[in-house]
Prior knowledge:
The longest helix is centred in the middle third of the chain and has 14 residues, at about 130-145. Strand 4 and strand 5 form a beta hairpin. A nine-stranded mixed beta sheet has the order 3-4-5-2-1-6-7-9-8, sandwiched between helices. The two termini are about 30 Å apart. The protein is an alpha/beta fold. Helix content is about 25%, strand content about 25%. The protein has one domain (about 5-215): Vaccinia Virus protein VP39 (Rossmann fold, 3-Layer(aba) Sandwich). It has helices at about 5-10, 25-30, 50-55, 70-80, 130-145, 170-180, 200-205; strands at about 40-45, 60-65, 85, 95, 100-105, 115-120, 150-155, 185-190, 210-215.
Amino acid sequence: xxxxxxxxxxxxxxxxxxxxxxxxxxxxxxxxxxxxxxxxxxxxxxxxxxxxxxxxxxxxxxxxxxxxxxxxxxxxxxxxxxxxxxxxxxxxxxxxxxxxxxxxxxxxxxxxxxxxxxxxxxxxxxxxxxxxxxxxxxxxxxxxxxxxxxxxxxxxxxxxxxxxxxxxxxxxxxxxxxxxxxxxxxxxxxxxxxxxxxxxxxxxxxxxxxxxxxxxxxx
Length: 219
């Protein structure tokens, strides 16, 4: 899935992947990470997610990265937040209070932008990537965080003969292959949520499992 695909989606405002509400799994399971209230959190491929607001309300310092300047601008404008943009480094940096959103390609990100991050919320990044990019994504993520880190990960699993992504189907077995060498993996939740996504039923899906994992890296 090339960067142009997502830029074109935002340009055409075809953003069915955007959730209007704060993610229920974030609210339910984030306390399990036992972070300090002012801990720094990273949200990859953040779009204009309102999950950023929830994390800010909890006192966290939040860093996101997003390809589309349209998505970033809409986030700040829709939430009535004043922001400034600086150009120090490889990424335009959109900033307001305890929030920074870096505009650019996740795969070009380096660790200097992510000092002291304690946790990652991944609802929309791994599932947005086709199989050939997911291993590259996880390797790059590991290079950005050589020390201990926690990830709250939300993923889908379904029959891709019935529908192709994004969001893509990711099996438990693939989660193990991608993360088990560096992370302890705990599955927190699994349910068939097809009734909550009627458009996927229209595509022909018969089952849509949504799963939540807590990944803990000890170094």
